[in-house]
Amino acid sequence: MGKTTVVRQFASQFKYFISLNLESEGERAFFRVGMDVEVAIKGIEVHSKTPLTAETLLFIDEIQNEPQAVQMLRYFYEKHPEICVIAAGSLLESYAGKTFSFPVGRVEFLSMHPCSFYEFMGAMGDESDLQSLLDGNAVYIHDRLMQQFRLYTLLGGMPEAVSTYATTRDFSKVERVYASLLTSYQDDVEKYAEGRTKAAVIRHILQNGWAYAGEIVTYERFAGSAYKSREVSEAFLTLQKSMLLETVYPSFSTTVPLMRQYTHHPKLLWLDTGLVNYAAGLRDEVFLAADLQDVYRGRIAEHVVGQELLALSSQVDSQRAFWQKSGKSEAEVDYLYLFGSKLIPIEVKSGSNAHLRSLQTFMALAPHDISVRVWSKPFSVDEAVNPLNGKKFRLVNLPFYMVGMLPEVLRKVM
I need a surface site. Which of 200, 202, 238, 382 has the fewest CB within 10 A? Predict the structure, then answer.
């Protein structure tokens, strides 16, 4: 669920729609014709009883099951550019055990992330509150929006989990969705990871790595294992390519370009905060905490903000970064957000401005005067004076539910 639903909704713009699932041996056969796209088209038309023309959307699902189908995309592009083709599939399977030759320059890649908070609100039927938020009236319903964001943080944005809860309002049924997802990830590893050691390391990460969400991790002996740094880093790379997680590296930069320090330890972010809560056993803590900042030493709040930041882009190569001051300083800012030609520091933290020491350190070095603090209180903008060097800067206090509006907010305050 998720990508298929989106494609079917998009298909309503076309007169005809053909859907192929390459888990089927019979439907894989259309692409085993020696790269002859004309033969493939005829076979698909006969099979679907539908013309394959400019009025048709062709959807090839689970394309990773047939490497020749991936290669044939270039011939659809070159010989029949009038035909609209969408392909989708599992990246874990693609990267873990098979070699693919993607037709560079002929295929446009888009990534699908879990639902953002605003998509979550729409699925829950909260359109009126969402519209009030988008219209700039959030201050009047701040408490209600924070309750909705807490629910989003608890459940996460996996489409099937969101749909299940929206329909049933039953947490136990959502837990079954999470359990099924985790089992499917494990099964993919068993089927497709090359080599016993790599499969074992990936399995170890999928079983034990959720508890390290939002934490700076060390590859050597990760999560109490005996695995070496190289084995763990290769396994993490495979899982990152599959988009199940991201190892987020620090930057020392306060100006563009944003240069990541790959020799330093990364921060671990998983694809979905709801899955983290379920797999790491944090759901009760999220539900009962007075403030999201109180959950898991603030790491769940930081994790869900990172998830919202990633949802601002559909680019496959989008990567997050955080800031560290070079040298022996312990100054660290949770995220860096590239906005135009500026690197904007983002701290996920409650409390007074006096406790934003790392952000103040960044702003003392930055050539601009804009910073962001994500918190549980209403939106505001503070005119601050940096105690480190007397420099004036603006602190944008952004409630959690407004992270999805970050670009618009920055445009207004710049």
Answer: 382
Instruction: Domain ranges for the chain, please list them.
Output: 3-97, 117-250+263-312, 322-413
User: Which residues fall within 8 angstroms of residue 322, CB to CB, at 6 or more apart?
Assistant: 248, 250, 251, 267, 332, 333, 334, 335, 336
Whole-Å CA distances, 372 to 15, 247, 352, 360: 47, 23, 13, 11
Q: What is the DSSP letter of 378?
A: P
Instruction: Tell me the pLDDT of the chain (414 aa) as tens digits.
Output: 567 888 998 999 999 999 999 999 999 999 987 779 999 999 999 999 999 999 999 999 988 888 889 889 989 999 999 999 999 876 544 444 455 566 667 788 887 889 999 999 999 999 999 999 999 999 899 999 999 999 999 999 999 999 999 999 999 999 999 999 999 888 877 666 778 899 999 999 999 999 999 999 999 999 999 999 999 999 999 899 888 999 999 999 999 999 999 999 999 999 999 999 999 999 999 999 888 988 998 999 999 999 999 999 877 778 999 999 998 888 999 999 999 999 999 999 876 666 899 999 999 999 999 999 999 999 999 999 999 999 999 999 999 999 999 999 999 998
Q: Are 282 and 295 in contact (CB under 8 A)?
A: yes
| Cα dihedral 263, 269, 270, 274 in deg (nearest 10) | 170
- 3-class secondary-structure state, position 345: strand
Least Cα distance to 337 among 352, 318, 355, 353 occurs for 318
